[in-house]
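Reviewer 2 asked us to include a model.

Predict the structure of this chain.
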Amino acid sequence: MMRSPLGVRIIDRVCCKCFNKDTWYRGYVLLLTFLCYCCYHLSRKPVSVVKTVFHQNCSALPDYNSSDPTACDWAPFNHPNYQELEGSLDYAYLFAYAVGMFFAGHIAERVDLRLFLSLGMMLSGITTALFGMGRLWNIHLLSYYLAVQIFGGLAQSSGWPAVVTCVGNWFGKGHRGLVFGVWNSHTSIGNILGSLIAGVWVSTNWGLSFIVPGLIILAMGLVVFLLLPTDPKEVGCSPPDHHGQHIVDHRTHGETGYEDVSTHQVVPVVGEEIAPLMTDSDEDVEERKRPPREAEAISFFGALRIPGVVEFSLCLFFFKAGRLYVSLLASQLHQICCTL
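Predicted model (structure tokens):
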């Protein structure tokens, strides 16, 4: 059996004595991965919130006594082309995120999934906090903020492949529709929490609008490292997709029956002819003693050959592109209304 994280071993001794072990851990993993991806979205939101103070109508602010209409703006976004500069932050992040996604899924299937996810969360927290530190360090270089966005996009790309793989390891195909439907609400909840947290300091010290979410996801990365079992085998739980029954050779009682995996009870065959037990050959005994083979990770082109992958990817691409276009259009209309 794979070795479970230190925190999980403690929880296993304390909490799993009074509950069904499989049910307990599946609910536990679902909640932990839900909070995990909430933190990913929580740390992405501050940029869109803080953009409103990078360049604003200074004359409309209370206690404004300067003749410079850009005195309250944050350089380098205090120029007339501030919208292009702010847009470059999004482009840098999204391009790095898209490139990182090609490699993140490939890497996640070939390394320790828990280590990969926790490291990605910690790096995401560091890059998010570094953006806010630009306010405290009084940095006005566009290249600094672009570099932080690029590294942040690469770090954030670790989230989706890792959490989806983890949830897929724990839940079978028969329940994935319901599970993913409920679980996927982490996107909206994370965005809401990110907006609320960033909004607390946006008008006073916008650096904290990045630093606080960065510390949150950084701490959550440590929690994942200590407490997340990424596979049922780590804690001795039954694998998913074993909802039915299968025939087993029950030699203890000299009978062949059906084993119900949910209860681990053997039900004898009634009304059927039982074939005599066959003597295993030496090759069969040796084969049974060998450890099970680990599933090999699929290649990029192998994944493209799976039916529906390309079609789903195109649908998701146009959905995301349409949503981004609508958000950019709304931002432009807001800027136009503010200048009228």
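DSSP finds 13 helices and three strands in the chain. The first strand starts at residue 245 and ends at 250. We have added this to the supplementary material.
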